[in-house]
Amino acid sequence: MSEKNYIIAPSILASDFARLGDEVKDVLNAGADWVHFDVMDNHYVPNLTIGPMVCKALRDYGIKEFIDVHLMIDPVDELAQSFIKAGADLISFHPEASKHIHRSIHAIKDKECKVGLVYNPATPLHTLENVINDIDLVLIMSVNPGFGGQSFIHSSLEKISQVRKMIDDSGKDIRLEVDGGINKDTIGLASKAGADTFVAGSAIFNTENYEQTISELRSKIN
């Protein structure tokens, strides 16, 4: 991983949905790298958010940048394929939401889409050992999934460090993403633990100046 190869991925969950296309364009113009989707099904997590039609709408609007889709749903396979058709660049899912993790991974990869696995604060990492050579990203949740605007769970830092070692030992080009409570006070802690990709929702979209906020977040990365 390049020393300066850090990614800021604003979560549109915190954006103004009444003007979503403009919001995404504004945050990308302000220096964001990826667009992050938090997809919730009111089943695997206690909330209901957005589906593939929103992804397609942004592509049709002219958004060409990388779209990073985090599926907090059960089951994952059918909707993953719908998001790929809608224009997603990466699909990540929770291993406990798939009966056949390896099959779900390769169903995504077979469509030339990148794939990641997501680990909640209390989810053990043992499944990662078996598929680390097959994935492009590991996402560590630093909150319990289901709602935006939660506080960072500091015990997730140890899990980030563990995954960083696993990635380094694998020799693979795998991104290590963190999502939950990321702001100017926590992004440095997460990067020091080994994360290189940072999802931030309210910490960006609830500010007046996206460019200033993203610049400040980058300045805190260690």
Please provide a written account of the structure.
With 222 residues, this protein is of the alpha/beta class. The protein has a single domain (7-219), classed as TIM Barrel (Alpha-Beta Barrel). The protein is 36% helix and 19% strand. It has helices at residues 20-29, 52-61, 77-86, 101-109, 126-131, 156-170, 187-193, 202-205, 210-219, and strands spanning 7-10, 34-40, 66-72, 90-93, 114-119, 137-141, 175-179, 197-200. The chain has an 8-stranded parallel sheet with strand order 1-8-7-6-5-4-3-2. It is globular, with a radius of gyration of 16 Å. The two termini are 14 Å apart.
Indicate the topology.
Blueprint lengths: L6 E4 L9 H10 L4 E7 L11 H10 L4 E7 L4 H10 L3 E4 L7 H9 L4 E6 L6 H6 L5 E5 L14 H15 L4 E5 L7 H7 L3 E4 L1 H4 L4 H10 L3
Parallel strand pairs: 1-8, 2-3, 3-4, 4-5, 5-6, 6-7, 7-8
Helix pairs in contact: 2-3
Structural class by SSE content: alpha/beta
What strand line-up does the widest sheet have?
A: 1-8-7-6-5-4-3-2
Coarse morphology: globular
Number of domains: 1
- Biggest sheet record: 8 strands, parallel
Count of individual helical segments: 9
CATH class, anyone?
Alpha Beta
Q: Tell me what the CATH architecture is.
A: Alpha-Beta Barrel
CATH topology: TIM Barrel
Residue-averaged pLDDT: 95
What's the count of strands?
8
Distance between the termini: 14 Å
Spans of at least 5 consecutive residues whose pLDDT stays below 50 are none
| Range of helix content | 25-40%
- CATH level 4 superfamily: Aldolase class I
Strand content: 15-25%
Radius of gyration using CA atoms only = 16 Å
Order of helices and strands: EHEHEHEHEHEHEHEHH
